[in-house]
Amino acid sequence: MTRNPSAVRVLLGALRDQWRSTLQAASIGRRLLAPLLIRHWRAHAGLLVLVFVEIALTLVTAWLMGAMTDAAVGKRFEELLGMIPWAVGIVALNIAAGYIGIHLQLRASDRLMRDMREQLLRHILLLPPRYTDQSRAGTLLTHFNQDIYGIEGMIGSNLIQILRFPIIFAAVLIYMAQIHWALAVVSIAAAPLVAVVGGTFGLLLKRNSRATYDQVERMNVFLSEIIHGLSVIRSFTLEKQSYDRYTAQSERLYGLALQETRLRGIYSAFGQVAGSGIFLFSLCFGAYLVSTAQITVGSMVAFLNLTGHLIYPLTGMAGLWIGFQNSIPALERLAAVLDQPTESTRLSEYTPSEAHGLPVRFEDVCFGYDDEHRVIHHIGLHIEAGQTVAIVGPSGAGKSTLFALLQGLYRPQYGEITVGNIPIDRLSPAELRSSIAVVSQDTFLFAGTIRDNLLLARPGVTEAEMVAAARAASLHDFIMEQPEGYETKVGERGIGLSGGQRQRIAIVRAILKDAPILLLDEATSALDSETEHEVQQALEQLQLGRTTIVIAHRLSTVIHADRIIVMQEGRIVEAGRHDELVQQSGPYQRLLQRQLIEQSTSA
Ligand SMILES: Nc1ncnc2c1ncn2[C@@H]1O[C@H](COP(=O)(O)OP(=O)(O)OP(=O)(O)O)[C@@H](O)[C@H]1O
């Protein structure tokens, strides 16, 4: 026989889960935030000192108001006048404390967030491509423009409030009890109710804020896809569909914001009702105590003044809980990135390599992007320093994957890759990648001038070297035809330049990088035949003395290679010089025949 669990048990279970997840979040918070809090301990210590100043000012203000009222009621005007400078002094101190508090809050909170931003970018730059490949640009941007601001509920003055509120509450309660203990007890009667209601709202808001973060991320991802895929959207006339999808998402976000405002509004109204109720109750009870001469009018004024200071730590603690719960999803999202292991501990910088050519070896390398699907099988490939090896094979054979492995972007599950007879695992990413120049099919251009885009190849490139390289890649004349020459701006993703021009920029970068190993991925594919001929000559010049691996789809470009490797389904199925391979009736010959047929039909 099955029995339904009682409502109490369900509630207890939910509370236990909630408590566990809060403890878990607190431990993530401690791990991620503690080093930053320690770094900015001075500002946090200053905020803590201000808490005690504030308490002292609160109690002295209440006492002074009571004393001034009693002096006025007792017609002791001289005494009253004597207290005015004290009152002015307290107001001035309050203003000064407020100003210093804002300043310290800025230092504690904004500097901490600045550090967190920098730490996040540093971490993302150090992450292996395996992680960044899977994360979409919009997701990564969300960490910066949303998640970092989300942790505000756990740092700066919000953190200090955790100490401030209980201390203020205790100090005020003790002072009130001293005036009249029964009145003080009556005043805190509503405390448990405020705590329960505040706790419930905290949980509701946490659920809402988690949904909000996810929704913002979804929208950022979608927006970045729309912006980068505008040309596809236009060519497939997807404008209306994209707009409708975005507005639906935007509407969902608005709904969540509305829900949050509603929850906060209800909670704030509850706080006000509770505060006013306690005030009114204290007023009536206080008036009764005054009428029965148990306390003075001044004591009642002091008491009523303190009532407000008793309520706001209570509602404030609940507010802190709410803010803390709101921050948890943001913190968890940041932890998901910051907990990923990095591929090195130092940000890479260009490391010059003395060698002119370096031998490259793949020793029985096996690799899959995930553990289930292997895409490279037992590759053994020895390339002597200064040799040119061409890799050919059908799409998906694993040619680009070999490039990625050689650059250390992924680690083989089995086997070893060496560069200059050193396993690449023992080289830092900076050493390895500084010794390799890559010209790929997709050239990314940064927003800036053509000069900026060329000079990033290597620090210390001279003007003469840049112009010579641009000439060698047949790009100089084109640049000089532009209104601002080398200072011409290229758009965010190189908009405004043709595929061939972008490819030549990549070639100039490779020339300028002057690395001992050259990886060319169909480097001349986007060029017309005349420019291709010129660039091909520049590339041949560039290859002299360098170890070069070329991925080529058009076999005409690989005829002069020292060795041709034919790949199929992640395996080397044939290897040799062009004249040797054409003699064999193997895969290379079949590829060649297919291309000849394609060329004759397209002609
Ligand atoms: N980032 C990736 N994540 C998962 N699988 C990938 C990734 N990149 C490539 N692959 C898979 O690895 C296999 C080899 O791809 P690769 O890009 O190396 O082939 P290729 O020979 O260079 O093809 P092409 O000539 O079309 O560029 C393919 O099955 C492909 O689907």
Automatic annotation (TrEMBL):
Q: Which SUPFAM superfamilies match?
A: ABC transporter transmembrane region (SSF90123), P-loop containing nucleoside triphosphate hydrolases (SSF52540)
Positions of the ABC transmembrane type-1 domain: 45-326
Against PROSITE patterns, the record matches this protein to:
ABC_TM1F (PS50929), ABC_TRANSPORTER_1 (PS00211), ABC_TRANSPORTER_2 (PS50893)
GO CC annotation: what is one? Answer: plasma membrane
Give the matching SMART domains: AAA
For this protein, the record's PANTHER family field holds: ATP-BINDING CASSETTE SUB-FAMILY B MEMBER 10, MITOCHONDRIAL (PTHR43394:SF1), ATP-DEPENDENT PERMEASE MDL1, MITOCHONDRIAL (PTHR43394)
What's the protein name?
ABC transporter ATP-binding protein/permease
Q: Which organism is it from?
A: Paenibacillus soyae
